[in-house]
Structure formats: structure tokens, C-alpha cells
Amino acid sequence: MSLLFAMFSFSLVMSISPGPVNMVIVASGVNYGFKKTFSFVSGASIGFTLLLLFIGLGFNQVIELYPTLLQYLALFGSLFIIYMGYLITSSTPQLTIQKQMQPSFTQGFLLQWLNPKAWIACVAGVALFSEPSSHQLFLTFVCIYFVVCYLSLFLWSVLGDKVSSVLNSAWKLKVFNQVMGGLLIVTALFLLYSQFIKPYSLV
């Protein structure tokens, strides 16, 4: 029972804590509402679960042999997050659905596979909740993580939808988009710093 609680706690902390995916979901919820954001939430939840399975069922061994793969992922992932931040920052401040910026299942799925935070969470989860002799423990962890991840991202989308009632003018929405897009870009730059500069610092 304590092991299941540990799985739940780990999943909740990693899923509900602020990160690139959560930021995009909040911004999407504000701009497009919960219903239009749900496809993105589904893509992100399913994408993360498949990434966790991918790493846990074998690719983790490749990462252990070639740890620099995570640095290349951080580079490409951060560039993609910067691009998403740019789209949010430069979006037209209108209180109507923008088709060119409408969130999609594919965007949510892809963002998880290019999100360094998601890879770190998966690698840590595999290390904590897997056994070399059997996949039963790991698959239990995957099921728990899927449910917790889906619910956590759902709550972020609801939060964004509720905040939209406060951002009831074009200039407020513009400021919000610029702040959220800027935070995404800053997050991506921090990920790059932590992967390529900090490890080589003499301090």
C-alpha cells in the first residue's frame, strides 16, 4: 500500500508542478476555453504515457550508455518550447478562437516527447519503480501515472478556463499571452543553461 502511495505521490508532484506543458495548457484554456483545450490535454497525457513505456521497456539502457542523448533532447526540446512561447506571445489579442493557434492533440503529444522535464520524470520514475525480473511493478506505475497525469493536466485546463473570465478585454489577454509566452521562453533557456552551462561550471 505504501508503494502505491509513493507512485501516486511521485506522479502527482511531477504532473501538477509548473512546466512547459502546464503553461501551454493554461494559456490555451484562457484563449480557447476548456473544450478546445481538451484535445491538447489528451495528447499530452497519452504522449507522456507512451514515452514512459518507451523508456521503461528498454530505451533507458540506451540512455545509460549514451547520456549525451539527453543533452541533444534538451537542445531540440528547448527550441520547440521557445517556438511555442513565440506563438503564444505573438498571438492576436482577440477573445475569439484563432484557428492558426488552436491547440491540437498532435501538439500536446509532440510537446511531451520534446519536453526535457518529461524525459527526466520518466527516467527517474523508471529508476524508482521498476524491477529487472518483472515488468508488473513498472506497468502498475504507468497506469497510476496515466490517471494522475490526465487529471492534473485537466485541472490546469480548468484553471485556464476560469481565469479567462478575468481577462475580459483584448489588452488584458495580450498582456497575459506575452507573460505566458515569455515564461515558456525563459523556461526553455533555463533548461538549456542547466544542460550545457551549469554542468561545466567550476563553481
Spell out the key features of this protein.
single chain; 203 residues; mainly alpha; 7 helices; globular
Describe the structure.
The radius of gyration is 18 Å and the shape is globular. The model is unreliable at 95-100 (pLDDT under 50). It contains 7 helices and no strands. The chain has one domain. With 203 residues, the protein is mostly helical. The relative contact order is 0.22. Helices cover 78% and strands 0% of the residues. The longest helix has 46 residues, at 20-65.
Number of strands: 0
Rounded mean pLDDT is 80
Number of helices: 7
For the biggest sheet, the summary is: none
Please provide the ordered H/E string of secondary-structure elements.
HHHHHHH
> What is the count of distinct domains?
1
Alpha-carbon distance between the two ends: 42 Å
Q: Beta-sheet strand percentage?
A: under 5%
Coarse shape: globular
Helix content: over 70%
Contiguous uncertain segments of 5+ residues: 95-100
Radius of gyration: 18 Å
Query: Which structural class do the helices and strands define?
Result: mainly alpha
Which helices and strands occur, and which strands form pairs?
Elements: H1 2-16, H2 20-65, H3 69-89, H4 105-113, H5 116-128, H6 136-163, H7 170-196
Helix pairs in contact: 1-6, 2-3, 2-4, 2-5, 2-6, 2-7, 3-7
